[in-house]
Amino acid sequence: xxxxxxxxxxxxxxxxxxxxxxxxxxxxxxxxxxxxxxxxxxxxxxxxxxxxxxxxxxxxxxxxxxxxxxxxxxxxxxxxxxxxxx
Length: 86
Hints:
By secondary structure, this protein is of the alpha+beta class. Helices cover 24% and strands 17% of the residues. A two-stranded antiparallel ribbon has the order 1-2.
């Protein structure tokens, strides 16, 4: 996607922001993002680069994006207990 996330990753309170392309459908993307707090997320959606993205994205999508929005208590990634290198 045109918006690579660099500005979002620099925001105070951003934990991660990653675009992933669907391996079965190269026209479908998944965006995974996390913020330290509700306030950090609010600041993100009020940022200039977010508003800029929201202005051009409607021109390149074929349907309204679907989202899953959850609050996670942990900060960042943790090791997967079920899998480790040999």
